[in-house]
Each structure stands twice: as structure tokens, then as C-alpha cells.
Specification:
Elements: E1 8-10, E2 17-25, H1 27-31, E3 41-51, E4 55-69, E5 76-91, E6 96-98, E7 101-104, E8 110-112, H2 114-124, H3 139-147
Parallel strand pairs: 5-7
Antiparallel strand pairs: 1-8, 2-3, 3-4, 4-5, 6-7
């Protein structure tokens, strides 16, 4: 059985109203995505699906940790994730996606939320991620970074203005 099949909900059989689903997201889930931004983690996704006659609204709450490299020392960083996301599901013969809206075929019996869960997790991870305290980083890497910092002032054409006094007496 495919890992992503657990994220498929039998939409046709659901009655109109609110339905709740729980997804466990772990490393095998992330491994199914090519060139994944996040490659490992341990999270719980709670999905509330409000089925209506003409559309459905999915509200997703994701909590847990993803394991990403620290941008400062490249060691593993356990980054906490806690986010809420919404997705509107509309019906159309032409399947397409827009921001926070997907269109599915009205004859579809299942809706797979794996991509929505993955995208929500990726959006929760900041562009720059590093250990909160530099002391938690790999000491060897921090030492090499400190050694490679330039000690002299960078030469620039603007340095000539450093001694200029523009105050009127």
C-alpha cells in the first residue's frame, strides 16, 4: 500500500456536514516527494472537512516537528511546527489549482490530501532556520566560521568619507 493512500478520503460516501480525520505524518511520507524541502519529521494533522452541497472546506491543523539542517552549522535541527490552513474544494470537469482552492471532478469518489498536508508543512518552515542559541550549534563549524571572518575593514570607495565632519559649527 502506498504511503500517500492514508491521506485519501472517500468523499462520495460522506454526508453533508462536518467530518474529522487524523493523519500521522512521518519520514516515509516525506520520502515520497521528489526533491523535498522537508525530508523528515514527526507530525499529527487534524483535518476538519465541512462538506456542503456545492463545495467543501477543509481546515487543517498541523503540529509536531520537522527535521531540517541548521543554516548556521548544518547539523540536524528539530524545528517545531504548529499551523492552521484552509482549502476550498470546488467541483469542475477541469481539474486545476489556485491559491487555497482546488477543483476536482464531480465524479471523483476520493480526495487525496497528501499534497495539501505536505505544502502546509513546507509553508510552516521559515526560509532561514537555525538553532536558537549558537552554543547549540556544532562547535567545530562555529570555530571555522569565526576563523574565516575578515578581520580588517573592507576596502571601499566610501571609506574616504569616514573622517568627514559634516556638522556646522
Amino acid at each position: 500500500m502506498n504511503v500517500l493512500d492514508h491521506f485519501s478520503i472517500p468523499y462520495k460516501g460522506l454526508k453533508i456536514g462536518i467530518h474529522h480525520f487524523k493523519f500521522e505524518v512521518d519520514t516515509p511520507f516525506f520520502e515520497t516527494f521528489e526533491k523535498a524541502y522537508v525530508t523528515a519529521g514527526n507530525l499529527i494533522g487534524l483535518l476538519e472537512l465541512d462538506k456542503r452541497s456545492d463545495l467543501a472546506i477543509a481546515s487543517l491543523n498541523i503540529k509536531g516537528e520537522v527535521y531540517v539542517p541548521c543554516d548556521r552549522c548544518l547539523d540536524q535541527l528539530d524545528y517545531p511546527i504548529d499551523g492552521d490552513f484552509k482549502l476550498h474544494i470546488k467541483f469542475s470537469k477541469v481539474e486545476e489549482e489556485q491559491d487555497e482552492v482546488i477543483f476536482i471532478d464531480p465524479d471523483s469518489s476520493h480526495i487525496n490530501f497528501a499534497k495539501f498536508v505536505y505544502d502546509s508543512i513546507c509553508l510552516s518552515v521559515p526560509l532561514v532556520k537555525y538553532h536558537e542559541y549558537e552554543d547549540d550549534c556544532n562547535p567545530e563549524i562555529i570555530k571555522k566560521l569565526n576563523e574565516s571572518r575578515p578581520t580588517s575593514k573592507v576596502e571601499s570607495g566610501w571609506n574616504i568619507l569616514d573622517g568627514l565632519n559634516l556638522k556646522e559649527d
